[in-house]
Every structure is written in structure tokens, then in C-alpha cells.
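Report of the visiting student (M.T.), summer placement. My assignment was to run the structure pipeline on a short list of targets and document each run. The first record concerns Putative cucumisin.
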Amino acid sequence: MTKHGALLFYHTLSILILTLSLLCRATCDDRKVYIVYLGSLSDGLYSPSSHHLSILQRVVQDSSPENVLVRSYKRSFNGFAARLTDQEREKLSKMKEVVSVFPSRTLQLQTTRSWDFMGFNEKIGRNATVESDIIVGVIDSGIWPESESFKDEGFGPPPKKWKGACEGGKKFTCNNKLIGARYYSSTESARDDTGHGTHTASTAAGNAVRDVSFYGLAQGTARGGVPSARIAAYKVCTPGTLCSAHDTLAAFDDAIADGVDIITASVAFSMIQEFDVDPLAIGTFHAMEKGILTSHAAGNNGPSGATVTSVAPWVLTVAASSMDRRIIDKVILGNGRTVIGNSVNSFTLNGTSFPLIHGKNASKNCTETIAGGCEQGCLDSSLVKGKVVLCDKYGLLEAFQSGALGSILPNFRAVDDASYVLPLAGTTINNENYNVVMSYLNSTRYPRVNILKSEVIKNPAAPAVASFSARGPNLILPDIIKPDISAPGIEILAAFSSAPISTTPGDMRRVKYNIQSGTSMACPHVAGVATYVKTFRPDWSPAAIKSSIMTTAAISYTHFHNQSTKSFWLVAWPMNDPSSNVSTGEFAYGSGHINPLKAIDPGLVYDASKEDYIKLLCISYDESRVRLVSGDNSTCPTGPDKGSPKDHNYPSMGAKVTAMQPFTVKFNRRVKNVGNANSTYVAKISPNSKLEIKVVPEVLSFKSLNEEKTFNVTVSGSNLPFESRASASLVWSDGTHGVRSPIVVYTVPRA
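After the run finished, the C-alpha cells were exported:
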């Protein structure tokens, strides 16, 4: 009886434990990481961590607050990340002290020649001492501290303002160049597992390292825009380019408090987010209020319109463009014809020609259509060994893993303005050249080809916006033009980690310097220029630095080189875009291509303060939420005084209007004199037959530095077709400076 009772007790206890375990597992599975944003930090005696736990105590029922709290944001702004159920999230979102609650989504990671192309060579004038006191924060996939680009020879101790730390994990050492490193919950080290963060950090502020190349390609000196500046790395991304929103927000919280001066962030969402649920908009806002400008990648979802996801007006949004160097590859057909392709192909085949086989003829277990596309598992290794395989689709992985000698592939995005590193002798070709190769293959019983190692050629059409670069218009604030600026982002050579050089599984090659393309590569170029401007203008606000970069940008370049004096300079001029499509022109390149040397002396700047951005937020959010964000007793204008985004003091001017209707829009602007104390600027309009533009007043006279003047621009017209754009520009000129602002009026697609 006792034995039976004991067995019954243990049986009942086991069922109870199992039930509790299943309940716990179900509850845990129901929990997802959410970010709870509370706005600015409160002044005075206040413990953010205690407050966060207190808030959670009010809503969490089946667990302790400590168990669900993931991270507190308490150094630069107020908030926390926690694992919540839907019910708990809903309760939190209704609290008056909460600005927003949103899921921690995943973000994606989005040079020897590029700086010279912009006229920014190694001989330009620098404030080296000031530059050495500037700290560039890199929010990315970490950094490779052993790279020559980050050695600290000749550097003194970190600037006294530095409040950060070297918390890079095991066997990670900082120095007087790489002065800080942090990593977050999803990783165990600040060491770069993908190479992406190392690439962007060295582009922005890496040392000048001579005689580098990618297997002999693009040989030269790899350097950052500000090689004397310091670097602080914040790792938020893991292998597979996954970057959590709550880690990214934590990086901003730390970087701001650590004392960085400029932030470069080459991470972005694939879809646009409202500002109050966008960790990048939140983090960059609080950076801005501390005087820190953030350069942010526009995204790689182009060329379709309205794909840009970085649209906050306090951020400098960067598109990617080409430079005057291209990397191409040549395919020599057996009939002697040469086909030009796009790839960064480091392989030299041992021979003059090799058998060419179509994918559909290299398979034993797939249909001709599927095999022709070289889809996964279709190519037979015995049939492709020693041969070059022609694929109807981008079947790179299958061609490589099947052991083919080489591959000829259609372009990955059906465009041919960028070359990417391939894991075997291969190239990508456009439709026209694909048809040439296919025609040759079908014309002979024994087709043969040779794929040559890639070569570097001149690109006279540069700069042109990359096809992959995300486009406007701005879906959150339609009257704020995005992106803001373009910079080199195609085939950029920069430092790399010990990660494999391509994303193809099985490609184990490793290099110290790698070639990559993307708005991720353009973004640190602009961060480098912003840092350069700050060395000459240390008291300028983020908006002033941004304005100087935008208003001095070029739409096209002409290069001049004087052989006798060895001087080098650029001439820029507006270029009329023949297309009026809404996703082209300014919605592709913003104010134009970055012009570093002119940016330090713009003449006038369109400045903006935290109060200006608060007024802009008042248009979309109620006063109580705006006060939480601002951390003060800001009041929102009402009625006619509420204003419009068109009145925000932005360096560019944009307006969405109704298609096929008359329109009149007015822009109110304010400029500050940062050029000559006594100066007079005259308004000049580049005309557009579809627009009537009037500037009042047409002349601005200044008697002192930092004096401000206001003006307004009225734009009228009618009958713009659906999904079209009419562009012009305003240039304020004093004979020395040309302060250019694009003017864009556009319509959206028919509903």
C-alpha cells in the first residue's frame, strides 16, 4: 500500500512538472522581443533600470521582470527591450509614459580609387591634429583589429572626451587608432565575422596602406577619408548579415554616451518604418540632439521608386554611385568573338579554351528547363568537370558546388553596372551577350570558350547612380527629398576580415582587402567627408554639416589635371535628366554627387536645431508624445501655425502635388552666412518649362558671419502627369560660392 501510494505520488508529481514545463514552454514561445521606447532621459535623480523593471512589473504576470528584460537603454535615451506576450505589449502601449512599443525586427547590411575620383587625394590640406581628436563610430558587423588599416603607429592616446571602453571579447585588443569596441546580445565578440564592418570602417577612417589589391586587381593605396581620426566599433550584426533592432538601438545608446563625433551606419530595414517604431530614426534623433551627425545607407532595393528606407530628416541618407574605374571580364568564344561580362574574377584558367556546356545538357535528374537554370542539385559533376557551364538563371552556387571549371551567368539583377566576387572562373552577362553566347553554342558541335581574369577599365560615364541603390520619394514625409546625396559605392576596395571573401558556401579564400558594392560602401565615404568638414568647422551643428555636403554636391564631374603644376581640380555643373520618371533624378541621387573639398566652404548653410525637428514631429504626433521624445515642455503649434514639412529648413525643396491639376507650393527657408563676413548673394534659377519659380527676395546681403536671412520660393505649374517629376534648382551665388538646392515637384502613380 505504501509502495503503491509512493508510486501514485511520483506519477502525479511527474505529470505536474511536465504540465508546468509545457505551460512555461508555451509561454516562452509566445514571447517575442519588443522595444519599448520612452523618449529622452529624465533629469535629476532617476534610475532608468529600476523604472524599466517597475513598468514591467505592472504588466508581466507569469514571469519575473528580470527574466523578460533583454536590455535597458539608459545612457543616451530612455527605453528597454523585453520579451513580451501580445497582451503585455498591448498594455504597455497604452501607458502614458510610453512613446511606442514595436517588435525588434531584423535589419540587413546594405578603396584605392574612390577618394581620388572625388578630387580628395592624399595631398589635400588637413587639420591633422584636430582630425586626430575626432572619433568615428561604426555601427556594423564589428571590426578586424589586426588589419593594417587600424594600426596605431604615430597615434597618441585617445581624446580626453572619450568615455567608451574596449569590450571586444576574448583575444580582442584595441589601440590608439581603434580606441573602442562593443558587441551585443546576439554575438560573443566585436570581431568581424563577415568583413562588412571592417570594410566600412576602413573606408571612413582607415590608415593609408600602400600597394594593396585584390589578387592584383585595383592596385593602389587603400585609405579612409580621415586617416588620422579614431574609430569606435559597435557590432550589431552576425554572420548571415542579420542585425537585430534592439542591438542596433543599444549601439546608438552607447555610441552617443561614449563620445563619438560622427556615426556611420550601413544597416537598414527592407521596408520603411514610421519614426516612432524605427530604431534607426530613434537612435539618430538622439545622436543629433547631442551634436552627432549620422551617415546612413539608403538601402539596396532599387531601382524601383519609393524604396528608400532611411527617410528621417535629421539623417544624411546616402545613395551609391559609380566612379571612373570599372572591373569587367572577357569571355573569348571559340569563333574568336569577345563578349564583355561583369565579375570580379581572380582566376586564370590554365589553357587557351575549354568545352562549353549548357546547363540543360549537364543533368541526369532534372527537366531541361530547371537544369538549364542550373538550379540546386541539377548539375551532374561528371558532366561539368573541366567544362564551362552556361546557365539560363543565376545558378552560381550550383555551378560552383558541382565542380564546374567555370560558369557564364545572366546578370544577377538584370543590370550590368556592378561586378561581384565569384568563387570560380566566371562572369555575368546581359541579355544581349547571353544570346550571343547561346547562338554560338548552338552553331557548333564542339563549342569552346575561355574566361579571362578580370581587368580594370576606365568608366567615362561616372558618376552614375547604381541600379541597386534605393530610390525616393519619401513615403513618411513626402515633401522631404530622399536620398540626400550620392557617393562611390560600386566595386570599392577596402580592408576585410578573415571571413571568406564571397558569400558562396565552400569558397574559403581569404584576403586582407576585398572588393564590395552597395550603399553600405557609399555610406562611410560620406561619413569620412562629414568628419573632414568637422575638422575645419568643429562648432557646426549636424544640420550645418549636412547642408554643406548637400549644397556643394555635383550633378556631374569634369576632371582637369595640370601636368606642369601637378594640380588637380573638379568642375561641376547641373545636368538635366532627360527622364521625368518619379524614381529618377533627385530621387536617385538626392542633391548630387558628393564633392569633399567644396564642402568645407559652402558659403551659406541651411541650419536646423532640435527645436526645428521637434516642430516637424508635431505635425505627425500629439504634444504629449513629442514631449516624451524631447524630454522638455515643448509645445506644438496649432491651426495655421502648425506648418508643413515643406517649411522645414531643409537644403533641398520637394513637394508632392495632385496629378493633372494646377498647383502652387511655397517653401520658406533660412540661411546662415559662413563664408565672407560682408557678402551679397544673388538667386539664380535653373529653369524648367513645366515650372514657374519666384524667389523673394532675390538678393541676400550679409554684414557679418553667422548672420541669418530668410527667403521664400514659390513654385507654380499645372497638368503634371501621374508618376512624374519636374525638377529645377536654386543657386545662391556671391561670385565665389554656389549654394545649390534642388527643387522637385512630383506626382504619385494613379490609384
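The domain at 29-104 is CATH 3.30.70.80 (Alpha-Beta Plaits). The mean pLDDT is 89. I thank the supervising group for their guidance throughout the placement.
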